[in-house]
Amino acid sequence: MIHNFNAGPSILPKEVFEKASHAILNYNNSELSILEIGHRSPNFVEILEEARNLVKELLHLDDDHEVLFLQGGASTQFFQIPMNLLNENETAAYTDTGTWAAKAIKEAKLFGNVFISGSSKETNYTSIPKNLTIPSETKYLHLTSNETISGTQWKNIPYECGVPLVADMSSDIFSRVLDFNKFDIIYAGAQKNMGAAGVTLVIINKHCLGKVDRSIPTMMDYRNHIQENNLLNTPPVFAIYVALLTLRWIKQQGGVPAMEKINQQKAALIYDTIEKYSLFQSIAAKEDRSIMNATFTISDKSLEEKFLNYCTQENIIGIKGHRTVGGFRVSLYNALPLESVQFLTKIMCSFADSN
Ligand SMILES: *Cc1c(COP(=O)(O)O)cnc(C)c1O
What we know:
There is one protein chain. By secondary structure, the chain is α/β, with parallel strands linked by helices. The chain is built from 9 helices and 14 strands. The strands form 4 sheets. Strands 2-10-9-8-5-3-4 form a 7-stranded mixed β-sheet, sandwiched between helices. The chain has a 3-stranded antiparallel β-sheet with strand order 11-12-14. α1 (about 15-25) runs antiparallel to α6 (about 235-255), α2 (about 40-60) crosses α6 (about 235-255) and α3 (about 75-85) packs parallel to α4. The relative contact order is 0.17. The model has no long low-confidence stretch (mean pLDDT about 95). The chain binds pyridoxal-5'-phosphate (PLP). The site of pyridoxal-5'-phosphate has 12 residues, from α3.
């Protein structure tokens, strides 16, 4: 058995892989592959509608919130959001918490003014800023709920900040309970916690749209996708089907609260092990460390290589840290079984005991 701790694309439930592969050969006993059916055929429209409704159900979204499956990755949302929400002479507030937040900031500056409400750049992005400054005329506040690379996560979402919230939840969507209706826009690339690469979940409070002066290209204007029920053009049919299978699996497991419970358990196990041995040092500040991506180093660099080799030999993969941070990153997404974390921590203990 391989223990897959990849940061993304990453592990999905085994039954999702099985059902998805079967659908490639014969979708729903139609004797047709899911790859060869029309996107406006009843077979696919059913998939799309069930997936959109399941997102609403699992996140308890109200009727103001629309669910879209778009393309271009979370990275396209970095510019599509300010393009739809921010006039050139207006200001949006952003939190600078890591590599992903910084990329969102760079794109927003192409469309309007950016005010940095809080930053952890000074601490190498190992923490989450606590005291935010938000000018009252700000159009929205953007945050990255989980910074996948450094391994930090917002524990206290600033719900009461007085301006609409926009969040990049690419690496923690469906992993913990939040008040999702408090956000005007939530976006997430599917390839970490909810499916295959190629589709991006975008949740929009429709009342925030239609307030900018610029002309927006047809495909970039959220209103057109909402108007056409997510069938403005050919959507990524297969990736949406994989997302549907994952959403059904999440529901079967008991929904987002059940996911959060097991994710907390997995995170506690790994962080307790890191803390138990002086050999390992956590990268993220304790109060801000992520339940999705645990990052740590070993002070002796030669031991880092030895540890990595030991893990590889034990079929533990995907734990090498991002090149900008170094060390290790253990991703604990929804589909990663508790047993894999138990196995990894056993290996960590035996390595620490003998080095
Ligand atoms: C992976 C990731 C992205 C990039 O997603 P793409 O779908 O590759 O564009 C953006 N934000 C966060 C927080 C991520 O983890």
